[in-house]
Amino acid sequence: MLDQSIQYLKGIGPKRAQLLKQEMGIETIEDLLYFLPRKYIDRSNTKLIKDCFVNDYVTVAGVIKEVKISGHRRKFLEVVIDDGSDTLSGVFFGGIQYFLKLFEVGDMVLFSGKVDYYNTKQIAHPEYDFIGDSSDALHTGRIVPIYPSTETLKTHGFNSRVFRKIIHNALEITKQHIQEPFDSEMVYRLKLMPLSQAIQQIHFPATMDEAHQARVRLAFNELFFLQYYLHLSRQYIKETQKHSKPVINESLYNHFIHTLPFALTDDQKKAVQEIINDLNADFPMNRLLQGDVGSGKTVVAMIASMAVVSRGQQVAFMAPTEILAQQHYTTFKKFVPESIHVQLLTGSTPAVHRKAILSGLKEGSVNILIGTHALIQESVQFANLGFIIIDEQHRFGVNQRASLRTKGYMPDLLVMTATPIPRSLSLTLYGDLDISIIKQKPANRIPITTLAFPVSKIDAVYRSLEKYMDEGRQVYYVLPLIEDSEKLDLKSATATYEQLVERFPTKKIALLHGKLPNDEKEKIMQEFNNHTIDLLVSTTVIEVGIDVANASIIVIEHAERFGLSQLHQLRGRVGRGEHKSFCVLMYPDDISQESMHRIHILTSTDDGFVIAEEDLKMRGAGEFIGTRQHGQGIAFEFADPINDFELIKISREEAQKQVERLKDIPALFENIKRTHAMNILEGLRKKHILALLS
Ligand code: ADP
Ligand code: MG
What is the pTM of this model? Predict the structure, then answer.
């Protein structure tokens, strides 16, 4: 029933069916039932025009008296309605021709929005709806759904009114066919609105609260089946990629841990243990290691590498930039015993070296290979690749990760990220990975002091810089732009560089930005690293990458231009050594309150996860979801990854329970695995729910 074409519904013939498919992807009755109102007009808030006052948010209903183009320099369309008490104009500045055709004198319409007064009462760009014959209860019920539409649909007369009619019809004849996918115990226990009721009330709620409850139920479905899919896919990998791995020599990596010049933090110990457990398991590891900058992830990766080398396998460690790869290489060389052969391979490795490295890899004499994208190349072949580490994994595409994996036989995979992702999001985005988190900073860290000043105080900041540089410290100085821009009134790195050179004539100052050739960048970094440079003016290219213990101050101008998580990353460039460190955020004197609030978050906490949550609240999930690249992003229709945290947690637990009950996971998974998670979500909702749970 639900999977029948909409063309057999009353009011829809083949033509309209074709149009809905093409414009909205609506093919079946079920598609139509899941076609959501964009918003509701709450007609219980309907007012008489005479009772509307400036700045009120209101809904008014009236008959169109006049449709006219007004204005002198700037033309606009004015749609005057009359409800018997007074008149009010709906005013449209854009799409004049379109609206001119849409509104006809004599139509009954609803306008909703904020009341203004210019010669007459008006609402600019009101939400509108046609209500037709006022005896029609469907359209004058207290809460009226408004559906999304397209130009083409509108020109064919598809407005919300039409949608309401056909959806109402569809519900009438199919209501009893909407099956509840969950057993009644679960529905009752979780206090879910039954599915058929939710679908009904998402379209025709009696109150806004009903609409809300209906959304919650549909969001639960969405989250549940996503989690269900993710659990299933994890189980699938565990069961179908079962294989025995060579045995780790525990005393070897334990001995290595003891040779480190510091004790591991508890979080590092826990992460190491989780990773070792996965390495010993009979399925490939798929683990995400999350931790703030400087929390000691690389050290954990190094210990895991030692364990893998101890069982006779090779390790590939891929980083997104040469600078990072170089740094990891240096770290490994510093700690790993000489008997273990570590190599670095990047785009700028000279041909002779490259050749030697490649043959060493192939015959197995190179144990650990660190590098950039260069590792993915065809010519890079391993004798026995057992472990892959990917740093800042969101900077690589799925395909890049996959092609590295094919270089070994079911290798273990550890991906790392220093971008703290709020837990609610990581549960949804990374549900297919096991997660280890390092929250603690190493004990020897001196906390970074973060200060914020308006730019008018810059002289005082300069004096401090001078003092600290005189004491032998180094400084990062970050700006949002490379060059002055006519459009944006922002200080650029280039202009600032010139100023600073003048201000500190005895100090060595350099300019670093993304447009410099690679070898030039490398050279500058090297010089900063060995303290030939005192002050490094830079754009955000230093965001990931440098670890210079003697750099103890970072100044960030136009801090209001950066995201919170980005500022936090930048701040992590200092506080890496024995010296007291400072992060100085500069902002314009006329900064807005909201921007000031953002900056205060940074001065008040150094917990990357707290900052990420705040960032998420302020900027929305797109920022984070965007980091999950190449078609793996998940767009929710009903769920809200920020505010539905509880729901995400519950759906995850329930999905896990359900998966545990299943017997033949591989067969089940084969059925659905061809599509991406997003399609799966779609597919599950529409077609597979019952099949999966039966
Ligand atoms: P991340 O990769 O998470 O940014 P790193 O592993 O590079 O962090 O560690 C940052 C710095 O802290 C490195 O210089 C490292 O040697 C040092 N370090 C790591 N773990 C500890 C620890 N437990 N105690 C003291 N120093 C540590
Ligand atoms: Mg690191």
Answer: 0.69
